[in-house]
Design brief:
CATH architecture of the largest domain: Alpha-Beta Complex
Number of helices: 12
Largest sheet: 7 strands, mixed
Number of strands: 17
Helix content: 25-40%
CATH class of the largest domain: Alpha Beta
Radius of gyration: 21 Å
Order of helices and strands: EEEHEEEHEEEHHEHEHEHEHEHEHEHEH
CATH superfamily of the largest domain: Medium-chain alcohol dehydrogenases, catalytic domain
Number of domains: 2
Distance between the termini: 36 Å
Amino acid sequence: MYAPSGVTTSPELPVPAQMKAWVLGDPDQLLLRDKPTPVPGRAEVLVRIDAVAICATDLEVIHSGSPASIGGGSPFNRNFTPGHEYMGTVAALGPAVDEFAIGQRVSVEIHAGCGQCKRCRQGMYTSCLNYGKPEKNHRANGFTTDGGFAEYAINHINTLALVPDTMSDAEATLVVTAGTSMYGLTELGGLVAGESVVVIGPGPIGLLAVAVAKALGADPVILTGTRNARLAIGKALGADRVINIAEEDAVAVVKQLTGGIGADYVVECAGTEATINQAIHMANRGGKICLAAFPHDPVTTDIAHLVKNNIYVYGIRGEGRSATHRAMALMAEKRFDATKIHTHTFPLADLPTALRYARDRVEDAIKVVVTTREAAVVASAAAE
């Protein structure tokens, strides 16, 4: 019986004392186990996870451990549950929570900063100086604390956004991805209406960066990549021009489309040496570049060009400055259709298959969603 002291529950949404959760064993090994259902703290809620999307970073964590860190060390064989792009239903309230009610549907963001360090006080909680220290109240679900490949998770109230009834579970999992794109544009200045934006890399973050930029009034929005099917989705999400870099010189095309001066903003979502250098040479003088991907290896870049042309470079991690809330507002108003990147759905029990689809891009998978409810129910809700 789940009845922690000081925690509010409801008989209408009973919570088991034990839950099913996938835990990380050795590299590339996930094991389905019973774990105690977690207990929310003072300003936290227990979320019954209804759906969770698979991110490329989840695949990195499961394979190599990084960028996850448990207790300052490797996440392997630590009873750690990965997964971070989830949504669900509020199932229990921590002792001081009256901002949410049991039964409300919520989407989440990953990071809850400690709330007391210099960066958190500046609103930069994704750069919390106590990162990875749960004893200091920092949480990064799926990275430093348990994530969403489970039946339940706890979240700080600051990380929650209400999901409207018009939005399916699967679509609500994409708020984290859209929020990351929104955060990148926020750090570049946020005022993109009428400005030219290039997005490099038509992965999930890049595709939704196109959608967010267009929803904010950017013009033109240009998307570059190598896979024509992905570029076609980018076109459907609002790209004014797509460039297959295997067929065209992306820098030359961007210069031509911007009157020879280059783009005001470039959002780099591929993370390779070649694409980072493309970003540098696509930006106009005084332009801004957001690096939204994690390069696997050190890269050599044309720093001299950056300096001589007063080009600004920003690195982002996650979906900071409450960007998920703004992304949710756009999605709730149907300013763009994030479901265009959702390609496959699997039940939680079939997580290994879902991960294989995401990792190997089976059937050109883009965003794979895992649900604790029947896949047919999610598909039905998405069709309504």
